[in-house]
Amino acid sequence: xxLWMSLISPISASGGLIPKQPAxxxxxxxxxxxxxxxxxxxxxxxxxxxxxxxxxxxxTPAEARSRxxxxxxxxxxxxDPTREREQRRTMPTVADFAERWLTEHVAxxxxxxxxxxxxxxVRRNIEPMLGKLPVDDVALSDALRLHSxxxxxxxxxxRVIAVLSAIMTYAERHNLRPPASNPCRGLERFKETKRxxxxxxxxxxxxxxxxxxAWPSPPRSASIVPSDPPPSxxxxxxxxxxxxxxxxxx
Length: 250
Known about the structure:
Layout: H1 3-8, E1 16-18, E2 27-32, E3 35-44, E4 47-55, H2 61-76, H3 82-90, H4 94-109, H5 112-130, H6 140-149, H7 154-173, H8 202-213, H9 231-245
Antiparallel strand pairs: 1-2, 2-3, 3-4
Helix pairs in contact: 4-5, 5-7, 6-7, 8-9
């Protein structure tokens, strides 16, 4: 066992830095209380930094050296391996980012009724199942699971996936997900039964029927022959009055 390796074994509890390995000068270890941590000392962006590689025990000295060589090679080539760690630490959850999407995008660019519907879908369907996931961790399997749980309500299931897809696209625009990584892309939607619209004719029916009923008729003693309502008015009244009794789909 080398001198450096022997220093990694049980050390005095005084703590402090363990001498760096001569063959890898920027690689060393630090003793804190009852544990020893492997680290490297580097300069990134003009700042000196200590980057932790892992704790001794779960990480062997050989694995720590291998990890140190790999990370030092990345840094020497101009990459910053700590950026990904920092991004992971600050990555918003689906719940947080969905609220941001509702505030920054939907509220400004959609009708109030549409915004209210999107908000209901986010809070009632998306957040309970996916809300705690980091927004960049949402995968196709998560979207499929969400879609399948709403299978009895196929129309709602498809609307929920459409809203989730919009949130994921918005995350891509803010560089929180890689381009073209939307997990809802290619997800097969449920078949929907075409919804029939029912004409709301109650107000018009009431007005037209009243106009026909109130059509003036001369007294019986008058010599004038009573006139009937105009054919167009009579036809409209018949159509609309029937529509109020039985909805006419079109």
